[in-house]
């Protein structure tokens, strides 16, 4: 039951004052919005004694001086609502609501802080100053019990007080229970800055008080204590789910190298080097996070959390949805953390670096003002593959290379070409005379290799992002009686060199430029192109012979030969299933001595 009164200021004349002349502990309430600075006037005693906003010491009733529009509600008890303009009474209205009685008629038996579900609080449990908590008071009387009572809450740190009216919730004979749920942030006005609270917390006392506004408290009145502090949350661990299994080299590097799987969590607070993850292009991430509290608690504490991505060009794409957590103990695990607004990775091969600011909302209120930053996580490197990887062991050593070379690309041919250019531009040593290492990543670790090693690296890079590729060995040969034969030729230019292939003047990846003679040459085939990272060549398979105008192919065994004549037949291509093996050509050799000259 209440009546509403609306007043306003005449800006040219002065303030309108609204107050209650109490008769029998009337309760008069004014909303907190749009109020002037001098808004608290104590009704019990000298008006100059009011020291703070809110309820005044010794009395739960209050009124305010307003300089703008406001609304006043008379809600209980007896009294007279008065409106003064320039200290002249303009309105006086008597009211009487409800069977309110003096609280001396009820004797308080117990006062208890309770959990928000009204269960008993575990001994030594602590609460955050911003979370909801219940209060329950038991009293008895042989008279008619009041429908509501007041409870004063006192901070032992500042001695500030705040009062709350709580209603009758249960009756058992002459015993009456009064209970209420104190909303999140209820104690914030009497504890000061939450960030300044000690880890051990401060004490809040709950004292049921009488309604005669004398401010006197019976020394036998039961009180209860609640320990409140500022819980300091942190995101302690992050795992990425539904991603591809990645591997990394063990440290220190062994010989042979041991590749070990990257396992979750890939990010742990305090570790400045989180592990990367990989997803298929145009897919969303899926995270599991572990939230840690600096206090062990024995009750359920609900909170909201969100991660805002600020380390990427796609901030709105990668920020998370808002999630509700339930903390009991010291750790809470939240699963299925996905991007807001149907966010997803780009529709291309490449990578992105994500940094998150995680913010928690302890009051569960809506609006950005209820969130406080708790943790910075990252940088989280995410690689994007074209399709599902086609090899079992995808090492970040190689994945980093191809996703960097082809960042932002989608079409297979462009990706293959950028892979060739990328490896060629590394400037690693090119040594045709050494053996092929069976590990395709050997050349990244040691930065030296022959053509087969470079070809195997490209095969690895393309397959790691889901683009099919395999190694191809090229030499001068022919199938004779259903068996591949390998021909070697005596080169009259060098006079002491036996070779199967001879190139024009080409610059290798390490900068050496000359005419190269080979027993064989190895490349990777990808997207209907032959990919040669050692010499920086990339052409369609149908155009491959144009690269090798200088392959040694006589039209017959006599000669002479014209410098511009094309080979009479294409080179011989030996296709491997995946990588080029150390035995790359047939052992049946036919050495043909011939005079062959190219400028």
Task: Provide structural commentary.
Helix 3 crosses helix 6 (451-464). This protein folds into four domains: 3-97, no CATH class; 103-229, Coagulation Factor XIII, Chain A, domain 1 (Distorted Sandwich); 234-385, Sandwich (Immunoglobulin-like), CATH 2.60.40; 396-592, no CATH class. The longest helix is centred in the C-terminal third of the chain and has 14 residues, at 412-425. With 599 residues, the protein is mostly beta strands. It starts with a strand and ends in a 7-residue tail after the last strand. The strands form eight sheets. It has an eight-stranded mixed beta sheet. Strands 15, 18, 19, 20, 21, 22 and 23 form a seven-stranded mixed beta sheet that branches.
Secondary structure blueprint with pairings:
Layout: E1 3-7, E2 16-29, E3 41-42, E4 62-66, E5 70-85, E6 88-97, E7 107-114, E8 127-128, E9 133-140, E10 148-155, E11 161-172, E12 175-182, H1 188-191, E13 202-209, E14 224-229, E15 233-240, E16 246-249, E17 259-261, E18 267-268, E19 277-280, E20 287-309, H2 315-318, E21 323-337, E22 350-361, E23 372-385, E24 394-395, H3 396-405, H4 412-425, E25 429-430, H5 442-446, E26 448-449, H6 451-464, E27 469-475, E28 477-480, E29 483-491, E30 497-499, E31 501-507, E32 513-518, E33 521-526, E34 529-532, E35 537-540, H7 544-547, E36 572-575, E37 589-592
Parallel strand pairs: 8-14, 16-24, 19-23, 25-26, 29-37
Antiparallel strand pairs: 1-5, 2-4, 2-5, 3-4, 5-6, 7-9, 9-12, 10-11, 10-13, 11-12, 13-14, 15-18, 15-20, 16-17, 20-21, 20-22, 22-23, 27-33, 27-36, 28-29, 29-30, 31-32, 33-34, 34-35
């Amino acid at each position: 039951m209440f009546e509403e009164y609306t007043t306003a200021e005449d800006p040219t004349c002065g303030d309108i004052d609204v107050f209650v002349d109490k008769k029998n502990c009337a309760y008069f309430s004014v909303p907190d919005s749009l109020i002037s600075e001098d808004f608290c006037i104590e009704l019990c005693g000298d008006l100059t004694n009011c020291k703070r906003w809110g309820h005044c010491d010794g009395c739960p009733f209050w009124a305010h001086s307003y300089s703008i529009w406001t609304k006043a509600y008379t809600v209980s008890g007896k009294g007279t609502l008065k409106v003064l303009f320039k200290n002249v009474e303009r309105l006086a209205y008597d009211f009487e609501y409800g069977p309110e009685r003096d609280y001396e008629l009820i004797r308080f038996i117990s006062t208890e802080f309770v959990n928000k579900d009204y269960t008993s609080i575990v001994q030594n449990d602590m609460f955050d100053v911003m979370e909801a908590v219940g209060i329950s008071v038991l009293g008895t009387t042989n008279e008619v019990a009041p429908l509501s009572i007041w409870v004063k809450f006192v901070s032992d740190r500042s001695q500030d007080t705040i009062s709350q009216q709580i209603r009758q919730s249960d009756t058992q004979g002459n015993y009456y229970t009064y209970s209420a749920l104190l909303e999140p942030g209820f104690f914030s006005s009497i504890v000061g800055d939450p960030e300044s609270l000690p880890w051990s917390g401060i004490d809040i006392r709950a004292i049921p008080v009488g309604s005669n506004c004398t401010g006197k408290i019976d020394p036998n009145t039961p009180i209860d204590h609640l320990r409140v502090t500022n819980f300091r949350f942190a995101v302690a661990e992050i795992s990425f789910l539904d991603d591809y299994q990645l591997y990394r080299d063990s440290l220190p590097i062994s010989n042979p190298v041991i590749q070990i799987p990257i396992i979750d969590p890939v990010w742990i607070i305090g570790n400045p080097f989180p592990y990367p993850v990989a997803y298929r292009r145009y897919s969303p991430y899926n995270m599991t996070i572990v939230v840690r509290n600096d206090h062990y608690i024995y009750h359920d504490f609900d909170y909201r959390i969100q991660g805002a991505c600020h380390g990427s060009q796609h901030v709105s794409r990668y920020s998370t949805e808002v999630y509700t957590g339930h903390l009991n103990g010291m750790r809470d695990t939240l699963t299925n953390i996905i991007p807001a607004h149907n966010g997803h990775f780009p529709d291309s091969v490449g990578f992105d670096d994500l940094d998150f600011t995680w913010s928690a909302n302890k009051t569960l209120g809506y609006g950005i003002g209820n969130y406080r930053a708790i943790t910075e996580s990252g940088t989280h490197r995410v690689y994007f593959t074209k399709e599902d990887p086609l090899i079992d062991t995808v090492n970040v050593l190689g994945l980093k290379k191809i996703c960097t070379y082809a960042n932002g690309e989608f079409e297979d041919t462009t990706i293959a070409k950028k892979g060739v250019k990328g490896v060629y531009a590394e400037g690693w040593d090119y040594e045709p005379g050494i053996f092929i290492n069976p590990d395709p990543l050997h050349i990244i670790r040691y930065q030296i290799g022959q053509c087969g090693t470079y070809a195997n690296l490209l095969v690895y890079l393309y397959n790691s992002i889901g683009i099919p590729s395999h190694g191809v060995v090229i030499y001068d040969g022919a199938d004779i009686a259903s068996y591949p034969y390998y021909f070697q030729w005596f080169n009259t230019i060098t006079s002491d060199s036996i070779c199967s292939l001879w190139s024009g003047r080409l610059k290798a990846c390490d900068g050496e430029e000359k005419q190269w003679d080979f027993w064989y040459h190895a490349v990777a085939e990808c997207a209907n192109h032959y990919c040669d990272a050692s010499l920086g060549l990339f052409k369609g398979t149908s155009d491959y012979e144009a690269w090798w105008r200088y392959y040694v192919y006589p039209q017959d065994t006599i000669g002479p030969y014209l410098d511009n004549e094309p080979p009479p037949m294409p080179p011989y291509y030996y296709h491997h299933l995946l990588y080029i093996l150390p035995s790359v050509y047939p052992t049946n050799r036919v050495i043909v001595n011939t005079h062959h000259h190219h400028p």
